[in-house]
Amino acid sequence: MNTSMQNSKAIQGLTKIAVKLGNQIHLRTLRDAFATIMPLYILAGLAVLLNNTVFTWLFHGKTLADIQYWGTVITNGTLNISGILIAGLIGYHLSQNRKFKNPLSASMVSIATLVVMMPNVVQIIPDGAKKAVSISAAMPFSNLGTGSMFAGVIVGLLATELFVRLSNIKQLQINLGDNIPPAVGKSFSVLIPVIIVMSIFAIISALLNNLFGMNLINLITTFIQEPLRHVGTSLWGTVFLYSLGNLLWLFGIHQAVIYSSILEPLLIVNITENIAAYQAHQTIPNIINVSQIQTFALLGGSGCTLCLLIAIFIVSKNKASKTVAKLAIAPGLFNINEPVIFGYPIVYNITMAIPFVLIPAIGIILSYTATALGLISPCVIQIPWTTPVIIAPFLATAGDWRAVILQVIIIVIGVLIYIPFVKANDNVLAAQAKVTEQ
């Protein structure tokens, strides 16, 4: 009895911590911002895929170059300005989460502040040249795109927090009365906070440049972005965080509490770097990325429940379980598995804990190993998370059929692992039914 009470208290304690973490305003802001920008990344991945595979099969020479211009400008308008975009989106969502009444002004300040923190002199290699030359008053895509994403996140959070706090001070608000257009009134209301925030960050930018010869983007990339990504998106760091997210499902807490707030932003940075490298025909830098996780560890949804559904069809003798499986198989093919999570159920079902957490981890490890050994191509295209199995690995790797075979192998392994646990769950349900009948 004491053990049962202790376990119950432990679960309640974990639940409170996870819920509090998921509702933390800055993590929630990151989740909202990256969810908003996701369509652009998927479009960028599609453009890169067509430019470097499909178009090369169909066209050649000048015609190919002319057709590829379409994909190049889409990449410029999505991936190559992602740092600026994420700064603006963070400003918007954080101010909304703070219940600030003028989120567009916060978005504007975040974008402008990030530009303020960029270097005024950059090194650019002209077409046909081998050495870089210094150019002033220019903003290359290297500072606007994936290279400034972490800077965009940090500047967006800091600038918005300061801006919202200053804007809520009545003494700093300029009120022109009710006889002017609302947009004009809002602009003047935040005029002084805008001046203060921009000036503070401009001073910081000037000090970094004049005293240390650095800028914020280089500083963040060197001391924050790369160390954080190397730990968080290392093989074992990813396995730990993703497994922890899946573990929360067993207590009825959405996996997104950990995944969407902490891990996914790092994984998205990795896939954007891969897309850019693939577009430029360079070495792909990151094995671990968001498409790899979605392709090899999200088979039917969290916990690779497509494998569970197949196992149920093969060995389950429980009528209710089979009914749930029949209802869940269609959405499961598109990685939507709430019918399984709550219908089978997975929630509070200790019997299914081991395979639910273990199989996605196996998928990550096997795909990482296969990629590292050159057995499959790395994932270089960001695909929608609802992309069905078989199709997903082919698209994510820009047409590598070997990745499809690996996904099928992981599905087979997952089914074999789930089978004994499905049988055990049938026995549990049968025993519970007998107790109910008595």
UniProtKB/TrEMBL annotation:
Membrane topology reported for the UniProt record: Multi-pass membrane protein
Entry keywords, A to Z: Cell membrane, Membrane, Sugar transport, Transmembrane, Transmembrane helix, Transport
PROSITE patterns per the UniProt record, alphabetical: PTS_EIIC_TYPE_3
InterPro entries the UniProt entry points to: PTS_EIIC (IPR003352), PTS_EIIC_3 (IPR004501), PTS_IIC_cello (IPR004796), PTS_Sugar-EIIC/EIIB (IPR051088)
Transmembrane segments: 33-55, 67-92, 104-125, 145-166, 187-208, 228-251, 296-315, 346-366, 373-395, 401-421
Location within or outside the cell: Cell membrane
Pfam families: PTS_EIIC
Coiled-coil parts of chain: none
Residue stretches making up the PTS EIIC type-3 domain: 10-421
Highest taxon above the source species: Bacteria
Keyword Cell membrane: yes
Keyword Transmembrane helix found: yes
Function: The phosphoenolpyruvate-dependent sugar phosphotransferase system (PTS), a major carbohydrate active -transport system, catalyzes the phosphorylation of incoming sugar substrates concomitant with their translocation across the cell membrane.
Annotated protein name in UniProt: Permease IIC component
